[in-house]
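Q: Could you fold this chain for me?
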Amino acid sequence: MKNILLALCLLAQTAQAQQSFGKVIAGLEVAFDVNQFTDGLKPRLIPGIQVEVPIGPISIGAGIGNEFYHEYEYYTYAGQTIQRMEGGQIVPYYVSNLNAFRPAYWTVPIKIDYRIHRCECVYVQAGMSFDFFSDRPEGRVKFEGAELRERPLDAVPREILFKKNTKSYTIGVGFSLFTHRFFRFTARPSFVLSENPEIYTTAPDYISTLRMHFGVQVGLFQGY
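A: Sure. Below is the predicted structure, expressed as structure tokens.
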């Protein structure tokens, strides 16, 4: 990780000064977790759009994105019970189906940046995100006819598996890797503390991760 930060710093030093990059800055960003320090469900990709307004060395921004998680599995009862003789006793087995879907959340980040170098190519960012559960992703049956000793539910609403709303907190150091007039590429490693979205889990209430963000930004209203 130290080598990555050093390389980003060296690249950032070659970026052009951005004293008037734009009155409003809009961009696309994608994030992914590099390392998760605690147990818990891990997101895959977090694409989003963001808008920020610079005020001197400070920028205040907000955005909207979609947080996709890895596939989540659960069983449902298929309506059939099989009885087997084991050790002189009748033991029931419940025929069940293994279901899966990819949980997703709409995420609304709010952030504040402080540029710490005169070239405006290095900045510190702090912020938080408000996440809202999305029931859009369709599920699928991965396996039919599993025989379980315990009877699962006939149907499992997703809202009993995942919280409707969660929050996360982030702090990181960002770099403008390349800048040309009203266009720039950015990268930002950050530490994120997220509320665990799962309801039935042995994982902790909050999940800490090292997350990497890459973005493309456009400066608007430069001449005004």
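A (continued): Helices lie at 2-13.
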